[in-house]
Amino acid sequence: MGNVPTTVKHCLSYEQLIQDYPWLRRWLLQEKEIVPTGVKIQLIDMLSGTGLHVIEATSFVSSKWVPQMADHTEVLRGIQRAPHVQYPVLTPNLQGFQDAVAAGATEVAVFGSASETFSKKNINCSIDESMLRFEEVINTAKEQQIPVRGYVSCALGCPHEGHIEPSKVAEVAKKLYEMGCYEISLGDTIGVGTPGSMFKMLQCVMKEVPADALAVHCHDTYGQALPNILTALQMGVCVVDSAVAGLGGCPYAQGSSGNVSTEDVLYMLHGMGIETGVNLAKVVEAGDFICNALCRKTNSKVAKARGRTL
Amino acid sequence: FSENLQCQALPEKVKIVEVGPRDGLQNEKTIVPTETKIHLIDMLSVSGLPVIEATSFVSPKWVPQMADQVEVMKGICRQPGVSYPVLTPNLKGFQAAVKAGASEVAIFGAASELFSKKNINCSVDESLQRFDEVMKAAKEAGVPVRGYVSCVLGCPYEGKVAPEKVAHVAKSLYSMGCYEISLGDTIGVGTPGSMSEMLEAVSREVPVNALAVHCHDTYGQALANILVALQMGISVVDSSVAGLGGCPYAQGASGNVATEDVVYMLHGLGIQTGVDLSKLMDAGAFICRSLNRKTNSKVSQATCKL
């Protein structure tokens, strides 16, 4: 039989297997209407009761650029933190980091890119310049013993540059890891990756960063997220990012899906005998809640099927 | 792990069996005009697909969508090198199919007793006996027969289905003379876990090069399940253009996996299919316009909007 059972045995030896992120920040960025603070807080509180270990709560970017995250302080202060759950927040620079800590953040995240063009268009600076910015954040975080997670976007393709060399992804991942990020999440930002490109990219990155410090953040724009995640698991990755109800479209393919649904990921993992500690039914409930609040349908096939099974 | 993956050679080529015109349309509510079906098949015929399931010779009383079976068979423009199998539930259907020009047929068994009774009103063993007649007639006429096994990873009535039961039915169909057995996750509940368990059991009874997988995407698991099947040596995959054909057991939920999404994954893995993805997407766009519905293919959705 293939190496799937081996992978299952391997993964079962990890305590905190899967960290799921609802990516509030990302998907809310796509939502045109500003979501009330109360709704965001309720969503996070519901997710806190599902068994998820990590819930990315908000983002300390300037509200001028991201009005959806203007209430970052109220959200962080308003949520009911569950014991043993982490609530990281995005901090693009030192100012954001300081605001985050003042608001009670105990974990932060920084965002690099494997594509120069994407870096320039997204955060208005080159990859090297962004690393200098993040170095400030990471060094300050170290002093305060606040863990920092690093993201690398465009790991399997860029909306502007097209193909991205695995060696470039490895270079950026290595830089973030050596600067002090405890974990590097490799993002297929436009969802173009397949198990083929995922395998090649991870093979390269794993030469520079240990597998147990890696995570995958797959988008489902081309329907490839689950087989890509499966490939990553088979290669020893044990941390997976996902978004409840698969919310958060793709800004580069209007109307298309973006984030992979947490519910669909969980269904696959549980079906493979992999422990996540997460209660799927409760995640479906949280997904139903936020979809009702946003007046939109879920992107999760599991949620759709469960709602309608005869 | 990466060494394991590398050594575990994926097939160089995969044969895609396009079931949209039959399995897909059969599960669409709108009755599609004959000319539309013919045009769809003709578009698919030039996309490089090697096998296109054209229609079904069941009684139109049960499946009104397939009432124009003879006109469709006679109206399509057959491409050389492309097969056009048709479903034949019994001897009468087989005879009508051959008369209408069919040169390959398919028969359907179930791995679940309850499903067999509810779907075709007889037990699994009774259905296999019925197909025996078809097999004999097909052998005499030199017509190849493909066998389908449904509910291989779960049943809407029985729930869990034992892999040994799937292996038993697959073996029976193979021993009867089916050249290929397509294993169907009818309600899409399977995962890479249950897929590998089932395939392990079946491949002990039927050679892996005579097996195909027919995955439904109702729970979003189809592509992951197909990937595992490929890793276990399967090189024939059933799919439906635009992901046509919902799930009759979960209203509004998706059913068949979209051919476009399968081809995208296979090409990304460096696996040859012979299929031209953009021509395939054209066919998908055509049938969706005709049905006045959106595609279920994520590749099509994404490509049209970049």
From TrEMBL, chain A:
InterPro entries: Aldolase_TIM, HMGL, PYR_CT. It catalyses: (3S)-3-hydroxy-3-methylglutaryl-CoA = acetoacetate + acetyl-CoA. One of its GO terms (molecular function) is metal ion binding. It is an enzyme of class 4 (lyase). Pathway: Metabolic intermediate metabolism; (S)-3-hydroxy-3-methylglutaryl-CoA degradation; acetoacetate from (S)-3-hydroxy-3-methylglutaryl-CoA: step 1/1. Keywords: Lyase, Metal-binding. Residues 17-284 form the Pyruvate carboxyltransferase domain. Gene3D superfamilies: Aldolase class I. GO terms for biological process: ketone body biosynthetic process; L-leucine catabolic process. Its EC number is 4.1.3.4. Belongs to the HMG-CoA lyase family. PANTHER family: 3-HYDROXY-3-METHYLGLUTARYL-COA LYASE, CYTOPLASMIC, HYDROXYMETHYLGLUTARYL-COA LYASE. NCBIfam families: PRK05692.1. This is hydroxymethylglutaryl-CoA lyase. It comes from Dicentrarchus labrax (European seabass).
TrEMBL record, chain B:
The keyword Transmembrane helix does not apply. InterPro entries: Aldolase_TIM, HMG_CoA_lyase_AS, HMGL, PYR_CT. Its EC number is 4.1.3.4. Residues 14-281 form the Pyruvate carboxyltransferase domain. SUPFAM superfamilies: Aldolase. The keyword DNA damage does not apply. Coiled coil: none annotated. Keywords: Lyase, Metal-binding. It is an enzyme of class 4 (lyase). GO terms for molecular function: hydroxymethylglutaryl-CoA lyase activity; metal ion binding. Pathway: Metabolic intermediate metabolism; (S)-3-hydroxy-3-methylglutaryl-CoA degradation; acetoacetate from (S)-3-hydroxy-3-methylglutaryl-CoA: step 1/1. GO terms for biological process: ketone body biosynthetic process; L-leucine catabolic process. Belongs to the HMG-CoA lyase family. This is hydroxymethylglutaryl-CoA lyase. It comes from Dicentrarchus labrax.
